[in-house]
Amino acid sequence: MQATLDAPSAPGPDSTRLLLEMRSISKSFPGVKALQNVDLDLHPGEVHVLLGENGAGKSTLMKILSGVYDRDDGTILLNGQPVNFHNPKQAQEHGIATIYQEFALIPYLSVTENIFLGDEIMLGPSPVLNWPAMHRHARETLRQLNLDINPRTLVRDLGVAKQQLVEVAKALHHEADLIIMDEPTSALSQNEIEDLFTVIRQLKAKGVGVIYISHHLDEVHRIGDRVTVLRDGLRVATLPVAEITIDELIRMMVGRSVDEQFPKVEIPRREEVLRVEGLSSKGLLHDVSFNVYGGEILGVAGLVGSGRTELARAIFGADKIEAGQMHLDGRPVKISAPHDAVDLGIGLLTEDRKEQGLVLGMSVRANIVMPILNRITRTPLVNIRREQKIAAEYVERLNIRTPTLNQKTLYLSGGNQQKVVLSKWLATNPRVLIFDEPTRGIDVGSKVEIYTFMTRLAEQGVAIIMISSELPEIISMSDRVLVMFEGTVSGILNREELSQENIMALATGGDTTNGGHSNSITAQ
Amino acid sequence: MADTATQSPRNKAADLEGSFLGRIPVWRLIDEAGVLLVLIALMTILALDNDVFGTWFNMRLIALDAALVGIVACGQTFVILTAGIDLSLGSMVAFSGVLAAGLMTRRGLAFPEAMAPMLDPWIAIPIALAFGTLYGMLQGLIITKLKITPFIVTLGSLSILQGLALVLSNAAPVQQLPRQLRWMIQIEPEILGLKMPLPMPAIIMLLVYFTAWLVLRYTKLGRYAYAIGGNETATRLSGIKVDRYLISIYSLSAFLAAMAGVILSVRLDSGNYTNGETYTLDGVAAAVIGGTSLMGGVGGVWGTLVGALLMAVVRNALVLYNVPAMWHRVVVGGIIVGAVALDAIRKRLRS
Q1: What was the ipTM of the complex prediction?
Q2: Do A366 and B231 lie within an 8 Å CB cutoff?
Q3: Are A366 and B236 a contacting pair at CB < 8 A?
Q4: Chain B: nearest CA to A71, how far in angstroms?
Q5: A371 contacts in chain B (CB < 8 Å)
Q6: Which of A22, A43, A399, B287 has the fewest CB atoms within 10 Å, measured from its CB?
Q7: How far apart are CA B5 and CA A384, in angstroms?
Q8: DSSP classification of residue A357
Q9: Separation in Å, CA of A311 to nearest CA in chain B
Q10: Which CATH superfamily is domain A37-255 in?
Q11: Which part of chain A is CATH 3.40.50.300?
Q12: In what order do the strands lie in the sheet with A331-333?
């Protein structure tokens, strides 16, 4: 608490008292025990890293703390006082701020306006805003964090990283003494991550406690004081970061060996299916060339914003391309819209299945047959009986858990939704299938099923392109890996060359020899 | 009426979990019949309280009142299902009426009478319908290819079409339409020697709704209307030619409005630029009262029919109870907001 603001190194936490104690928190959702007797505590000035796979319960725990969910059982003490939040506002009033991956800033308002939103300073008792005072306070808050941001700038004119720091400033302005950061670095470059860490160290110096959720395991040692690992709603361990290695953390998180997670089968490579030459699109892709063979799984790795999704969209005809040729089974093809791609037997499982993959208000059946209605019948009519038959077949084959074929996809779990999307593309009998982040946000069981299907498709001679941010997935499932950096192909690695170091080196624009300390290692 | 496209006959896969399915339809019926129950209750009360209301004659008047706005609302429902809106439909009613009347009577057209052909109705009417449909297609092209929101494009058309009606008619009603067209507005029509209980426009409306229901349920166009409204991106990425279907739907709604316009001009014996002025928003209101979401993807035509009838019943009751005509718009507006508010409250209570 008494450390100076400009302390160059992070001061240790004040371990003499507890800012937060969560004791045996439990929470159930219909059919799922999301949390069982989980403990978590936090000292002032401490960064406590929370780790766990998707679905391990991290978000649920944080939502209970920030008042979004009510807990079923357990106690929460804040500065030794029991508290009971029923909505996020109550938590905020007790000094708990949450910084989400998607920021809660209003883009067309200035930094000052965002910081003061709902808490404006007035000119005396009048309804007139006191701009000079607000700008002064905002500048002061930004200065405390050593941020070089003009408070009059519109938020939309700031980069993602600066916006995030404005969020921190806003939290500080609201006198938060506990800040929850949910994957704050997922969209940041290395330099920006360093800036964020500097700010976090300043928060520590001011005695603010930080709960830090991340998938980037290397950050545990760089910024954390203690780490808690959750798995399947249970707390596995809480330890000082100095006492544990990354490998041990992975083992705690996953709870099983890597082999069971990734059912990779070596499949002999067949003839070339898709060849892409010199693909460019405005500002996003530059001269991308590669090929993919039948029976092959080609991984596509790269940092966020490196052009992986853009590459998939360009191949699929969803975005305009400026230059480049594509060959399918040796013949030149022209794809200018998604329906061309579908007609040629190319499928795309989008990154965001709710926004782009499914019509959530429509049934499982209608979603599965969507791309093949024209093949079921050439007339303008639909043939519901045949649709039922086809949909029922995929529901059974992929083990989709749905009460009926007419259930709206909205009501399915993430894993089952993804299987509906997969069914939809399987039904088209594709030559090439592009998976963009196929396992994001789905449970471990469904993941294995999806890998199994991917493998089975490869065995049938389908060429598979798998875009993923999860390096273990890329390394375990791919035959070759194409690494992207700033819209270009920075390298293609063969299976025997695959390692996290090699991929990260290419993904950050270096070559494979200077990997090392700056590598991000993404868990599972 | 919600979710017509995703309903389907009982399927064999239903035994995946039979007991669950068994409970759904009851809820679903009540859910979908919400506004219908309101309509029935209102009509029962009115029939008990007022001797005139329940007569067949009065029922025919209500059906006549609902018929043309109902046809417009049916097309509007298709557009709203795709998460669009067509504000030009009322003006299309005026435009097609003026055009058809002008072509048939040689009166009122903006060019010299000598140049104006006097066409047989069987040529004039298809021309008016074709112009209307082409205009709708043009709107669809602008919306999809230039990516301008439907609200703006059709707002412009609202003015353009009414202006064209004004120009074509020289700002005066075009009257004295051929008597041979009277069949389409008969109050007590006979079809194949059978006396019909409903006026001809209402029979035409019912045919339109039945066809529209079949289209929504059993054609790709219907399926894609729901899909586009539910998630246009996902639909496009499924390889569906979204633009083509949107253009078809804007053409279809313009066609139905043009058809209503021709019938209205015959009924009023006047093609006038003020015809159908209120139909645009009444059509939107009917669709929304009937449970079609302005966000797209949810709803159906039967609900819209109930919405149109509900508004006609209210207008009829206002006349029967001698409410001054000046107040009618106020009451009808209140009913629109009230009906949708009731529905919203009901849904919130249930969840």
Answers
A1: 0.81
A2: no
A3: no
A4: 21
A5: 238-240
A6: A399
A7: 10
A8: I
A9: 15
A10: P-loop containing nucleotide triphosphate hydrolases (3.40.50.300)
A11: 37-255, 258-345+430-524
A12: A285-293, A272-281, A323-328, A331-333
Q: Determine whether domain B36-350 maps to CATH 2.60.40.
A: no
Mean pLDDT over the full length of chain A = 86
User: Does residue B147 belong to the interface with chain A, where contact is any CB pair within 8 Å?
Assistant: no
Residues in chain B: 351
Chain A within 8 Å of B295 (Cβ-Cβ)?
no
Q: What are the strands, taking DSSP E only, across A250-401?
A: 272-281, 285-293, 297-302, 323-328, 331-333, 346-349
User: Which position has the token pair 């009230």?
Assistant: B338
**CA A282 – CA A294 distance, rounded (Å):** 30
Rounded CA-CA distance A390/A101 in Å is 39
pTM listed for this prediction:
0.78
Question: Rounded to whole angstroms, how far apart are CA atoms A286 and A134?
Answer: 45
Instruction: Locate the DSSP E strands across B54-197.
Output: 174-175, 190-191, 194-195
- CB proximity B236 to A under 8 Å: yes
Whether residue B25 has pLDDT greater than 70 = no
Angle at A444 between CA A443 and CA A445, to 5 degrees: 95
CB-based contact B3 A361, cutoff 8 Å: yes
Q: Is the pLDDT of residue A8 over 90?
A: no
Q: Across the interface, do A362 and B226 touch by the CB < 8 Å criterion?
A: yes
- Give the per-residue pLDDT at B8: 38
A385: which chain B residues are within 8 Å (Cβ-Cβ)? 9
Q: Which of A348, A360, A373 sits opposite B223 (nearest CB)?
A: A373
Tokens at A414, concatenated: 């993430």
Of A339, A402, A406, the CB nearest to B6: A406
Can you spell out the DSSP letters for B71-95?
Answer: HHHHHHHHHHHTT---TTHHHHHHH
CB contact under 8 A, B218 and A355: no
Determine the straight-line distance between the first and last CA of chain A, rounded to whole angstroms: 37
Distance CA A144, CA A147 (A): 8
Fold of A258-345+430-524: Rossmann fold (3.40.50)
Whether B90 contacts B158, CB under 8 Å: yes
> Is the Cα dihedral B302, B308, B312, B318 positive or negative?
positive
B265's tokens: 């001009």
- Please state, for a pLDDT cut of 90, what percent of chain A lies above it: 47
H helices of A399-499, where? 414-426, 444-459, 471-477
Candidates B173, B151, B152; CA nearest to B273 is: B173
Banded model confidence at residue A89, pLDDT cuts 50, 70, 90: confident
| In the predicted structure, residue B23 carries a pLDDT above the cut 50 | no
* Cβ-based contacts of B240 with chain A (< 8 Å): 339, 370-371, 373
Query: Closest to B234 (Cβ–Cβ): which among A358, A374, A428?
Result: A358
